[in-house]
Amino acid sequence: MSISEMIKQMESIDYDVRFMVLHDLSEELVDPKYQIGRKADELINKILELISDSSGDVQSMAIDCIKLLVNKVNDTRVYKIFKFLTEKILYGKEEFRDVYTIALKGVFSQLENVKKSLVIKVGNKTIPNILEGIRSSQSSEIKSSCIGVIDSFLRRYGHLVPVLHEKIQHVLFVSLPTLTVTRTAIESLSFLPSLTNDPLFFKLLDSIIEVLENNSKILENRVYIQLMAAIAKNVGSRIDSKLKKITELLIGYIQNEKYKEKVDLIDSIFYCFESFILNCPFQIGKFIDTILTISLKLISYDPYYNMDSESGSDFTGSESMSDESESSLESEGRSASEEYEEDYSEDDEMSWKIRRGSIKCLLALIKTRPELVNVYYEKVSNTLISRFSEREDYVKLDIYETYIQLLQQTRIKLQGFSENEELKKEVLKVTKPVINSLHREFNNSSLKSRIKIFVLLTELVKASTKDSLLPFFDKLFKDFKTALFDKFYNNSQYSASAILFFRNYLIYNNLSSNLIVISSIFEKLNNYINSPENQLSIETLKICSQISETIRFLSNDQEKEKEKETEIIEKNKLNEIAINLFDMVNSVFKEQKKDTEVKETSIIVMSSLIYNIGDYLENRIEETLNILFDRMKIETTRVISIKSLKKILESGSKWKIGSIVIIENLMKELSKYLLKHNRVVRQYSLIALIEIIKNYNEFGNSEIFTRIISVLSNFITDQDPLIANLSLQLGQVLVLQNPYTHEKIVDTIVEKAFNILISPMHFQETNLVSSAIGLYKAIVQEIIIKKSTLKTPIDLTFSELIEPMVKWIQGKENIKKDDQGKIKALAQCVSELSLIASSDDFNTLLVSLLKNLKEKPSIPIVTFSLYSIARIGIKKDLSSYKKLKTIIYRCFAHISDDIKIAASYCLGNIAIGNLKYFLHYILKQFQIKSKHNFSHELMRTIKEIIDYFILNQNIDKDKDDYKDILNKRKHFESHLEHILNSLFQNCESEIEVTRNLISECLGKIAILKPKLLINKIIDKLSNVDDKDNEIKKIKLKKSKSTKSLKALKNSKIFLQSTLLNSLKFAISKDDIQKIDKLIQKKIKKFIIYLENPDYLIRLATLTFINTAARKKFWIIQKNIKYLLTHLLKETKINKELIGSVEMGQFNYKIDEGLENRKLAYDTLNLMILHCNELLKVSGFIDVVKNGIEDPYIEINLITLDLFIKLIQFRYDLIRVNINKLIDPLKKSLTKSNNDENEYKQNVSQNEELINSALKAIYLLNKSNISKKEPKFADFFEKVINRNVDLKKQYQLIVKNSSNQESKEF
Q1: What is the pLDDT of residue 702?
Q2: Which one-letter DSSP state was computed for residue 883?
Q3: Does residue 40 surpass a pLDDT of 60?
Q4: Which residues cross the membrane (predicted)?
Q5: DSSP letter string over 624-635?
Q6: Using N-to-C axis directions, what is the helix angle for 1024-1036 and 1042-1066, rounded to 10°?
Q7: Which pLDDT value is given to residue 565?
Q8: Are 834 and 842 in contact (CB under 8 A)?
Q9: Cβ atoms 1108, 1067 nearer than 8 A
Q10: Is the Cβ–Cβ distance between 1229 and 1284 less than 8 Å?
Q11: Beta-carbon contacts of residue 918 (< 8 Å; ≥ 6 apart)
Q12: Residue 446 near residue 393 (C-beta atoms within 8 A)
C-alpha cells in the first residue's frame, strides 16, 4: 500500500480502518530498508493528528508509528515532531495531555538509535520549553507532565547535555514547593547529581541547607528533606562535606518541642536518617548514637493510646499474663482482634508514621552496623520486645522484621567466631521475654503478623544454643498447633511458615520426651502432605523426616535406659508413631503424578525414614525399595533415587533386606548405569554399589561382579579423579568381600592403580592415592589369608606385587621436577603394605631398603628408600636397628638436595616411633661442631616431629594410641628448652631458607605451648635493643671495620624478621587455638614493627597480618585503623628500594619493595569485605588507581580483584571516582602491546590481567555507567568496541557471566 493510500485511509470514519492502516504502517516502518518518500510531511502531520483520536487503540498505534518515524526522517522533521508534541503538552487540550506526554517520552526513547549530535540539538531546543512550562504554568497537570518528560530525558541523555544541568536543577528546585505531587520531581532532582559536576552539586546541597535553616514552612521543609534522602540514596558518597551540617539541622528539628506533633515532618526526617544510614554508613557514623537514642525514644510515640491500660508486656522474663487471663483471651478469639482494630486504627490518627520511621532507622542500623550487635542487645532489644504489642499491623510487621534482622546478624557473628560467649548469653537472656511476648500476641495477631512471628521464632531457634528452647516447648507447640488447626486463616504460606519453624525447632532441640504430644498433629500433617500447594507439601515432608530423626534419638536413649529397667515411651506406642509417620510419607511417595520437586523431596524423606526408623518398618521396606527401584528407572528421578538408595544401604540398622531378587536387580541395574554418559549417575551408582557389596555381598553373583570389574578398569585414570577414586574403593571392597574376584582384579585393575601412583595427580588428589593404596592393601590381606589356608593356592606373592614399583624407581637415573611426588606415593604404598605383610616379607623389604642407603646406587633409589623407611618408622619402632640413625645422618652430607630433604623427613619420622631413643641423638648432633654444618637438616627433622604433634593435638581419648602419643609429647616437652635454644641460636642465619624453617618450627611450637613461646618471642624482640647499643659502640670506635657493623645490623634484622615471621605459622590452623587469643591480646607488641625502617622486618610483619586477615580477621580487628594507616603507606613505590643487577650483558631492574607492596594490596583486598573503616580513608581510590597502574602484573591482578569487589559492593564510591580509573583500566588492556619484551614470559598472567579488567568493565556496564559517564562511554567505544580481539573477549565474559548468574538464580 502506498503512502498516499495510507494517508487517505487514516481519514476514514471507521476507527477499525484507521487502526489497521496504522498497524500496517508500523510493520513497514520496522523494516530498515523501507523509505517514506516525498509524502513524509503529510504523513507526519496525519499521524500527529491521530494521537488525539477518539479511539484509545488508534492513539496507541499512532504513538508507535511516530516513534518509528524518528529513525526514518531528516533532522528538520524530527524537530517538527518534538515541537508539535511539546506545544500540545503546554497549550493543548487537557483531555489529551497525558497521551501527548506518553508520545513525547516515546519519541525521546527512539533517539538512542540516531546520532548523538541530533540528541543534543533536540534536547537544547525542547527541554528549555518544557522547563518554562514547569516554571510559568499555573496548571499542576501541565507541571506534572513536564516533569515526567524531564525525568525521562535525564535518565536517557542527561550526560549529553551538561549545559542544561544548571537550568534544570534551578527550575525543579524552585518549583518543588508549588507541586501537588512531588515524587517525580524529587526523583529527577535527586538523579541529576549523578550527572553534574561538584560545584553544581554542592550548590544544590547549599540551597537545601539554606531552606532548612531559614524556612519556617513545615510543608516545604518536608519536601526538601525528602529530596535530601533521595539524593543520599543516589549519590551518598558525594555528600561527605555537607552531611554533618544537614544531619545537625535534622536532629535540631526532631528535638525541637514545637515540631513534636508535626507527624509528616518527623516521618520525613526519619526517612532521611534511614537513607543516610543505608547509603552513607561511614559518614553518618558520628551521629549513630544520637539517631539511635531518638529512634528508641519515638518508637513508642502514641499520644492517643495508653499502653498502661493494657496488661503490661513484661520483657524481663517473668510471666505477666495469668493462665486465666490467657485462656479468656483465647476464648474471645477473633472478636478481640476485630475490636482492637476497630478502636485504634483511626483514619485521622497518623502517629504510626513516627513509630514506623523510628523502626526503619533501627532496621537500617542493624543491617549496616553488624559490629554493634552487642550494643543492640544492651540498648535496643528490650524496647523492641516491649513494642511487639504495637496496635498498627504494618508497624508491628516492621518491628518483627527488625528483630529478625538482629537475630540474623547474631547468627552470622556466632558462626564467624566461636568465642562470642557474651553474645550467646545475650541471646539466652532475651529468649524467655521474646517467646512470652510473642505467645501473648499470637492469638490477637493478623495473618501477616502470625507468619512473621513464625519467621522470627525460626531465627531465634537458629541463633540459640542447642536445647536452650526446650523449657518453652508447651507455649511454642501450642501456637504451632493453633496455626495448623486454624480454620479462620486457612492459608498455605501460614501453615508452611509454622511447619518450617517447628522443623527447625526439632533440629536444634531434642524433643524425644515430647514425642507423644507431637504425634497429636499427625492427622493435620496428613492433610497438608497431600496439599495441592507444593511448598506446603514439601515443608510437611521435611518435618516428617525430622520427626523420624527424633524417634531414632529416642530409640538410642531407650537402649541405654534398658539397664535401668525404665522406658521413656512404651515400645508399642513408638512403633505406632513410626508406622503413622511412614504411612503419611508413603501416600506421597507412591504417587507418580506429583510435581517433580515434591516427588524428589518424598524420595529423600522416605530414605531418611528408613535410615532413622527402619527397625520399626521391616514388613514395609521391600515394597518401598521396589517403588524406589522403579523411580530409579525414570530419567528425571534417577539420580535422587540412587542417592536415597545409598543412604538406606548405609543406615547400619538391625533390619536387613531379605529379598535376594531385589538386591540382584539393584546390582544389575546399577552396573548398567556405570556405562551411562551421565557422570553424576555414574558417580552415585559406584557409591551405591560399594554400600551394597559391603552389606549384602552374599546376594551377588560372579556374572555381575565380572561385569562390574570390566567396567571399573576403564574408569581408573587421572582424567576424572572422583570417578577413579570411587572405582578403586569399589575394587577394594570387592577384594575384601569376594575372594574369587581377587584374580580378576589383579589382572585388570592393579596395573591401573599403579598408573595412578605414578601419575602427576598426587599434588591435587591425595584421596586418589589413598584409594589406590587401599586396593593394594586389600590384595596383601588376601595373600596373607591364602598363605594361612594351605589348601588355597597363592597366585601372587608380596614381592611380586611391589616389584613394578621397585622397577620403576630403578629405571630412574635422576629425579625430575614432577618425580618427587611419584616417589613419595610409591614409598607410602610400599611402607603401608609392608606393615600388614608377614614378618618375613617385612624383614626382607627393610633389609633391602637399608642396603640401598649404604650402597647408594642412585639418587631416586636412595630417596625412595628414605621415604619408605620414614613411613614404616612412624608406626613401628626401628630402634633395634642400631646403625640406622647413623646411616640416615650420613645422608645429610650427600650432594643431592632431594636426598637431604628425604633424610630429614626419615630421621624425624623414625624418631616418632621411639622418641626416647632417637630425640636424644638428634639434639646431640646440634652440639657437634664439624666442618659440615647440618643444622638446617636437623631443624627440618625437628619440624617433622613438631608436625606430628600438631596433627595429633586433639586426638580422641578413646583411641588406642592416645596414651602413647601423650607420653611422646611429654617426652618432647621435657626437651623443649634444649630445642628452642638450638632454634634461637640459628635465627640470625644468613641463609633465608634456614630462617624460614626456624620461623615455621617456632610458630608450630607456639601452637603447642602458647604462653611459653609468645613470652620468649616478645623477650627476644625487646632484647634487640642490646644490639642497637653494640652498633652505636662500633660506630664510635673507628678501628672496627664496616663489615662487622653490617654483619651486626643484618643479624638484628634477621633475628627480628624470623621471630615476626613465626607468628604467621602460629595462627595457620583453621580452628581457633589458645595461641590465637594470646596473640590477639599482645598484638600491639607485634604490629608496631610496621614502623620499622627496614623493609625485611616490615615484610615479616605484613606476612603475619596478611595471614590473620585471610584466616582469622578477628585477631587484628580492634587495631584496624592503625593497620590501615601503615598498609596504605606500604602500597607506595619506594624508589630507595629499586636497584639493578647486571647479569652478563643484561641489566635487570630489582624492586626489593615489591613483596611488601604485594602483601599490602593483598591484605587490603582481604579486608575490604570485613572492614568498613577502609572505605572511610581519604584517597583510598587513589591507592586503587596506583595499584592498577603499578609496573608489576602481580599487583595489577590483586588490585583489579579489589576493584571488582568495590564495584559489586560499593558501586557508589566507584561511580563518583570512575573518571580517575579509566586511564589505568586502559593501560591494563594495552599493557602487553606497550611492554612486549618485559611481559614476553608472562603470557598467561597477561591474559588474566586483561580478563580481570574486562570483567570490571562488564560489571560497570551492567550498572549502566555508560549512560551516566560520557568519558567511560567514549573509552568503551574506542578501546573495546573498535578492537576486534578485546571485543570478542568482552563478549565471551558477558556470556559466561550471564550463564553463571542464571545458574546461581
Answers
A1: 78
A2: T
A3: yes
A4: none
A5: HHHHHHHHHHSG
A6: 170
A7: 46
A8: yes
A9: yes
A10: no
A11: 879, 885, 907, 910, 911
A12: yes
